[in-house]
Amino acid sequence: MFTNLSKLDLKDKPSLAEAGSPKLCMKALPGEGAERSCAYDGARVVLMPITDVAHLVHGPIACAGNSWDNRGARSSGSQLYRRGLTTDLLENDVIYGGELKLKEAILEIAAKHQPKAIFVYATCVSALIGDDMSKICAEAEAELPIPVIPVNAPGFLGDKNIGNRIAGEVLFERVIGTGDVSAEKIPLSINLIGEYNIAGDLWGILPDLKNLGITLQTAITGDARFDDLRLAHRACLNVLICSKSLTNLVRKMEIRYGIPFIEGSFYGIHDTSATLIAIAKALKDPDLLTRTQAYVQKREKETRAIIAQHKKRLENKQAILFTGGVKTWSMVSTLAELGINILAGGTQNSTPEDFQRMKELMDPTAQIIEDTSSAGFLKIIAEKKPDLIVAGGKTKYLAHKTRTPFLDINHGRKLPYAGYEGMVTFAESLTRTVFSPVWGYLRAEFPPVGG
Amino acid sequence: MMNARSYQGNPQKNSPALGATLAFLGVNGLLALLHGSQGCSSFIRLQLSRHFREPIPLNSTALLEDSAIFGGWEYLKKGIAVAADKYKPQIIGVMSTGLTETFGDDMVSALSSLRSERTDLLDLPVVLASTPDYIGSMQEGYQRTVESLLTTLAVNSEIEEVSGSLEAEGDGKARGQAESLPAVVLLPGCHLTPGDVDELKEIVSLFGFQAITIPDLSISLDGHAELEAAPLVQGGTLLEDFRRLAKCSACFSFGLSMEKAGEFLKRTYGISHTNFPSLTGLAATDSFILTLARLTGKPIPEKLLRQRARLLDTLVDFHDQLGKLRVAAALEMDLLYSLASCLAEVGAEITLALAASQAGIHRLSLPVPIEVGDLEALEEGAKASTLIIANSNGRQAADMLKKPHLRAGLPVFDRVGYPQKRWIGYEGTQQFLFDALNSQN
Q1: Are B393 and A412 an interchain contact pair (Cβ–Cβ within 8 Å)?
Q2: Is residue B361 classed exposed, middle or buried when 0-12, 13-18 and 19+ CB atoms within 10 A define those classes?
Q3: Residue B355 Cα, gap to closest chain A Cα (Å)
Q4: Which helix (H) or strand (E) is A185 found in, with range?
């Protein structure tokens, strides 16, 4: 019943383990405190931003109850995706099976919430008790006018990356190209793969695309509507912006629909411009390329003028960077833009390739953080005494205990950091934390030494 | 109405393992180890972290596919050993999950097998709490964990001084004991915030008692800037405190869910035990204060009488507004009972009372029948109310119905200061009523 993992291109061709990257995707040791989450989480990260569908978690309360509506993916339309829906498997369901309850739940949700589709997520418990989710989804689908799509990524399959990839498979097999008979390409159109509209990131990029005359068919899956996703095969180009986790999806779209893909990032001035130019080149429209080159020059100049005041204050500050995926390397150049040096960098959920890219961009003296547990994190802060920490929300409050300025760049944040606009917001946020008056109070002795 | 559905829509339930984590976080030097996949612990850390704005030390045994086939017994042994070696905790607290309970890992035999291989770990206290995700909510997980803490640490620890007179339970004798043994055990339920627990300790100290509080979130999750950050619980009940339980003269448990733990101490040490289902409201606080006064034989401290007089004045001044409140509440049982009974007592109408789980539902009563329900049921049933009381996830219902929403319970992530708030005792009751009224604009 599970997606065959060997088909998921889990191993990217060249082994980079020997090239000095840490053992990134190795199994976590029990008890060591690596904070990596599970395959189910990885699948929900990719699929749950789809706004006008119902996301039903088939499992006990722990999987949905502790996590629903907790990511900052935003919607310009339907809010249905924010609803926490679960079959809430109870003791009797574990004994007698949860298939009947699942079927009923699907039908009830379809009637009450009128979704465009229902995604049904397997969990450790539903998989263990042997519920045949694919069969139930097919049965329910036969009775409903909407697709009912099983997502077989129970937590124990592995970490987030595996879940990301399975979600990509689900989109490829069950969503993309299933709606419209037309396969005609939409001129100058792209899909942004791996953009989840966290804190409205996507909305910071859209104006630039629009100004250049580029059509966004859909993001996968930030602020995405189900019907737009189904037409994703009509785009001329896939732009993969969360690095490797959805590579399998773009490769398969290239083969089936002839859509080429490029990689990019919209974090920071340099990467935003480079990505826009790469898009223009890949769309093979000479006029667009000329337009884009002039446009990015203008935007870079404007943006650098605005952030100059922040750069002046932040220059030569020492940072520790701790993140995952595309942000691993993209953040290095974003911080460099502000003149910030990176003392040490670490990552979770990134591929060796992401990691190598990060390493190449960093100063050769920068240290690589290998122990990604709280203990490892604290140790490196104590050693390096950085001026600021740039990391995900998970480590925010631990970082605060070390009395070090901190910026959250992952899904818990409230402000968009993508694109040129996002760079300004990012610089402002950094300045606010680094120069906040509170650090002084925390570091001061009380009562004062010597009376 | 609520049970007709086959799914939970916008659940108010949290997982029992989250409740277990919360209880463990009130024990000093403890490392919590969740026996499950990495997602289980990741979600709990995130949920508690955004509520308390604190780092949440919680490790997992990181189960993978092979454990789904062969079981997680070896993972648990390894997890305990690795956690002990790497973090050097004073105690390890283990909780199970739906995954490990479904394949039936025997945690007790895993621990004894590990101890026979690693004799250096013989003296490391390890508390095992069984918290399958498919039974109950946060409250049940917290309750089971407090019970496990007591049965493991209180009984296994050497009893330093056991006096025969401790068996006395009558008022007269209890009063006599209080003179010589001014220590009491407090067992706060998970409906009390770190601020509430702090207030509780203060009230008890006004009567001259020392208190042993289990678990003590008021000095671990109270959001204090620590001198040194560490990946273990800092603050909370000391391990030594569990060894001093025999010397206590009385036990008070708060929230019906804590009754069983209190009864255990009563049986084990022969001390008196009183359960207070609520500490919010005039009658509830009166009952607690009078019990303390009887136990000490001393008059009620002036400070508390003054607070009571202020509360009475508030009740008079705002009785009309309070009488107009029509309240729909969806909370974990002990908190639901505490807040709703307090509002009912002052003339507010309770229009809907939804508990997160079955626990205690037949033993506690409110002016309306208590039902088990999710926040979708709140959305459907709160139309006639003027106030919604629920955790932050109730925001979808409140937005849709355009009703004022007073945040309570867990998680509260879109209002600041909730973990520090005090809604118990006379002063806390007054504050709760202020907050309820202020939410009305």
Answers
A1: no
A2: middle
A3: 15
A4: none
Residue B2 domain-assigned (yes or no): no
Instruction: Note whether residue B231 is domain-resident.
Output: yes
Please indicate if any CB of chain A lies within 8 Å of the CB of B83.
yes
Nearest neighbour of B229 by CB, restricted to A129, A394, A402: A402
Element (H, E) at A341: strand A341-348
Please give the ipTM for the structure prediction: 0.91
The answer, as to whether pTM is greater than 0.80, is yes
If asked whether residues B321 and B215 sit together in one domain, one would say: no
Which residues of B fall within a CB distance of 8 Å from A112?
9
Cβ within 8 Å, pair B50-A82: no
Domains of chain A: 33-174 (3.40.50.1980), 189-299 (3.40.50.12380), 307-441 (3.40.50.1980)
Among A159, A204, A205, A155, smallest CA distance to A23 is for A159
Restricting to A residues 322-381, those with a Cβ less than 8 Å away from any Cβ of B are 373-375, 378
What would the DSSP string read from start to end of A41-59? HHHHHHHTT-TTSEEEEES
Asked if residue B327 and residue B207 are part of one domain, the reply reads no
Give the whole-angstrom CA distance, residue B141 versus residue B189.
11
Verify that B85 and B63 share a domain, yes or no: yes
Which residues in A lie closer than 8 A to residue B86 (C-beta atoms)?
Answer: 31-33, 373, 375
Q: What is the mean pLDDT of each run of 10 residues along chain A (451 residues)?
A: 46 41 60 83 95 97 89 92 96 94 98 97 94 97 97 92 94 91 90 94 95 96 96 96 84 97 93 96 96 97 96 95 71 90 77 71 77 81 91 84 89 86 95 95 86 58
> Chains A and B: how many Cβ contacts under 8 Å?
240
d(CA B183, CA A352) in angstroms, rounded, equals 58
Range of the domain at B361: 309-438
